[in-house]
Sequence to fold (272 residues):
Amino acid sequence: MLNNLIIRAEKPSDYKNTELMAMRSFWNKYFPAATEHFMIRIIRESKDYIPEISRVAEWNGRIVGAVYYTRARIVDGDVSHDVITFGPLAVEPTLEGHDIGGMLMRETIRLAKEAGFSGIVLMGEPYYYPRFGFRRGAEFGLTDPEGNTFDALMCLPLNNDFSDIKGKYFESPDFEKLEDQERLAEINKEFPEYRKVKVQEGFMQIFEQHLGVVEAIEDGIYMVRYWELVISAKLSENLKETPVVGSDVQFAWNHKVEGGSMITKVFKNLLD
Fold:
């Protein structure tokens, strides 16, 4: 945990720094590049934005995390229930492992409960959010707009046990603006150009691990470039190909043990 970490409301002077941090947080996670910085702008412009419970994390004068809340609905036939959702939850990638995301979640869940919201519903990472009390939406009779349910659809009741709430989950319609590729391209001109990486054909989801490039090899230890950091790592026993200097790799980052990180995959960037 970082000393002197401050969780607070976002100010206009934070906007650009928060967007850059969010871009870095999600870069090459789902697909080459990211759109979360664009999403944040859409949220700020939306009538469904809830700034009173959204928060940023500041450390040593730098924005290192953020979470944004918006209004959502659960619809069951002619009956509609108001709930809230959040996203993106972003953390500066070079500061992972310091519970920044956890602190943002615990504080904003508290604020949401005190504000009287009935519950939080989201589409998110099922390995991460249960630690904050989220449960599968199927337990509450919740589905996506098409009537499907899966582990990523989760719910956290706050001031309602959800026994009388069930149906289809709908986010703010403003999220459809993410399809505006022309506006995204214009916004991207405001930010640094980072390398785009594609690990595989189709959908990517690189969350429990990270992507990096082998920068040096010293006595069987591989020095992996990850943003501004160089992380020492060993090779997984199940690795099928031995990396060389310059190899694109996927690695599991052990934040607590120096040299405890592990390269799990060598891949070719399909965009090169």
Summary: The longest helix spans residues 100-114. The chain is about 15% helix and 35% strand. The radius of gyration is 20 Å. The chain has a mean pLDDT of 95.
